[in-house]
Amino acid sequence: MAEQSAAQAPAKEAPKLKPPKKKKKWLKRLIILVVIAAVIVFVLSRCMAGGVQSVSGSYLPAPAAVQELTVAVTGPGTIKPNDSYRATTLIKGEILTAPFEEGDTVRKDDVLFTLDQSDVESAVKQARTGVEQAQLSVQSAQLNYDSLIRTRNDNAKDRQVKANANGVITKVYVDPGDTIAAGTPIADILDRDNMKLEVPFHSVNAASFYVGQSATVTVSGTAETLYGTISQISATDSVGPGGTLVRNVTVTVQNPGALSDASTGSAAVGDASSSASGSFQYGERKQLIAKYSGELETLELHEGDRVYDGQQVGEFKETQMQDQIDAATIQLSNARLALRNAQDSLERTQDSLEDYTITSPIEGTVIEKNYKAGDNYDPSTASTSGTSAFMAVIYDMSRLTFDINVSEMDVVQVQVGQKVTFTADALDSASFTGVVEKVNINGTTQNGNTSYPVTVAVDGNGSDLADQGLLPGMSVSANIIVEEAGSVLCVPVDAIQRGASPFVMVAGAGALDENGNLADFTKLEKREVELGRNNDEYIEVLSGLTEGETVFIPNAASSFMNAMMGM
Q1: Predicted model pTM
Q2: Same structural domain for residues 234 and 307?
Q3: For the segment 317-355, what is each residue's pLDDT rounded down to a tens digit?
Q4: Could you please report the per-residue DSSP string of 329-355?
């Protein structure tokens, strides 16, 4: 009951706390300002120290040291085999044979492929027939031309009217301007100056006579004696008066003027006399006959005129044969041209037979074989049908080479025979050697700069190098050793700065700390130097530095980062 009464009694209120007394506002603000000032001083001191250290880190130290300096011209290149051949042809057809496989070694002129050549063999036969036909055409044209030339030459002779005997013109049958045919009589010629007497002699006596022998002639009725010569002796005997054998002998004498074909006489040769007398005949009695058909343009003959054998006495008018000869000349030229064309066609067709047999022009290793016997090769669709345009690829791996392009400023230093070192990127920069084989003077100019290709022959057998991993197509970085400078004082090329004269930065008093690090970049000193030879990394210092001194190289990357952080 007592607890209940106590619970029901009202609770007493807790005593209230008195609020603390407020500090003065100016003291609080002072404390805050002091703290801020301390922070600012701390931050500024750290920044100043870091800035000096950061700027000092913008330079990299490098010693000036004596070392072996090799002067080289550098450049990239691509490894190539000594020679290569990509087998192809312009013809299409079925491949009949392909007697090799990838990896095989082939010799020069070995057969790689043979293609079906039945079509071209038919073309060769047709071409040969064309040549034979052209030859016949030439022969026909030549015969026609020769015939016209002979006709013209003969006509040129026949157009001339010439006397066919010595004598006097006794009759003229035609006049100038007459048109006559070949065989027409033109004039009669009679030789009265010489007389012929044909008389028989006993064959026994005549057998000893000879042409040109002297003879004596007695004219019947006048007993006049003439002297002449034997001009003809009969080849056979005949039966004379009384059954004796005789042989006719002709004696020629000069006509004293009174003899005619009505006169008779006898003859004596030495002691032998003719067995009978005979009649005199004129020395020559001939008729001049035309050998040409046409208009008689000139004729200088009159009855009584004396002429000699071969004398030209007239001429026929020339007919127009030159047009025919010109046409025959053109025909012959065309026939000869057609023959040459036919022969060329045959030669080309025969040469095309060689295209159906593909041989290797080099000795090497087959690295690709893209077609086999039974395949059909068509060069026009090979590249578009998903097949290779090359039937096979052969590399001559007896040695390897590569070309590098050398600038016009450096090519004057490069000479055949200089040593070359190079590395292959694909082989973890493995090092190889070679020698400059050729400096090509056919340069290439681009953007005002000219470069020249230099061919390098790699040392060692190409197949052995390939086994080591150096394969055609690999990229290499080459150094052409143009000079071995020996032991000289050098600094890195990047340490050289350019101004009016080249200079380097060296440490002055107070620039380095106790550990030799750059502590104050403002204490670096500029020093001019005289430079000599160089390669891509180091340059020779001729004067201005001594061995052991330290130069400082501006660190472009660090400077850029510091500038970014400062911003």
Answers
A1: 0.49
A2: yes
A3: 877 677 788 888 999 999 999 999 999 999 988 888 888
A4: HHHHHHHHHHHHHHHHHHHHHHHHHHT
